[in-house]
């Protein structure tokens, strides 16, 4: 068991987390009953130090180390507590350590401590030191613009969305930063339930749980979407990784393990376009993998059932950002199609 020295004693590391919890709750509560009596005073001193640190952070005066209070100390408990870190001139110039929580850094591995910091934060407007160097300030300006142009002007719509969502589309798209389906297809909040992954792949039902299959289950069974749209795109890095794989490749790479879901599309591409350049093979596979994902959708019993009933449609889309065109098609699934197949493509068109 990992031990931590406190007050001249070696205590389990989990005790440290309890002490930090005391610090956040304040000295007026009684969380220290969870600790041995010999450590109770240390917890009370830590809580008092936390309170003083928070109080001093609200004033412009520099923080000063808080001397430990020995009034309630047990005999032999003379170890002083850590004091808040005081940022130097260079740190203040760069805007670092704007909110000093260094008195709990030892428990930073405990996510509950981080959550408490967020809960204690007051949602007021403060001058941010070094804000001109903060890359998030541009996002703040965009958010405020969004709030004014969308939320304020369409307030009733956003109030309705706060109560429920009824999207017509479930979209499976690539995580590529150049391929945002909301931007490309103009989806507004509440119109499309979206999941994005490497190479916009849909694993088969037998693959087991994944974030994509979980999103599909929620969209189809709970939200009752009417359309599932799988969107692929040009120059997809995930497809390039798939086409570069060796047939007998075994790798610990998360990317390669994920894109291997599209091996059937890779094999089809090799058979149909193996004589073409690698770039042309990748372009072929980008579309082939979309159809592979559409067929994988039908391996999910609740998707196959709704498609058969005519209450759910499956669509493919291909966005070429080189010339800004969008190709779309719909998968037909029923018995007795031409050639004895159960699958066909209809309503294929290109928007350019």
Automatic annotation (TrEMBL):
Superkingdom assignment: Eukaryota
Names of the cofactor(s): Zn(2+)
Biased composition (Low complexity): 43-64
UniProt entry keywords in alphabetical sequence: Lyase, Metal-binding, Zinc
Record-linked PROSITE patterns: PROK_CO2_ANHYDRASE_1 (PS00704), PROK_CO2_ANHYDRASE_2 (PS00705)
Biased composition (Basic and acidic residues): 87-100
Residues involved in Zn(2+) binding: 174, 176, 233, 236
GO molecular function: carbonate dehydratase activity; zinc ion binding
GO BP annotations listed: carbon utilization
Coiled-coil ranges per UniProt: none
InterPro entries associated with the record: Beta_CA_cladeB, Carbonic_anhydrase, Carbonic_anhydrase_CS, Carbonic_anhydrase_sf
Cofactor: how and how many bound: Binds 1 zinc ion per subunit.
Catalytic reactions of this protein: hydrogencarbonate + H(+) = CO2 + H2O
Signal peptide bounds: none
EC numbers: 4.2.1.1
Start and end residues of each stretch annotated as Disordered: 43-100
Family statement drawn from the similarity comment of this UniProt entry: Belongs to the beta-class carbonic anhydrase family.
Function: Reversible hydration of carbon dioxide.
PANTHER family attached to this UniProt entry: CARBONIC ANHYDRASE
Protein name, per record: carbonic anhydrase
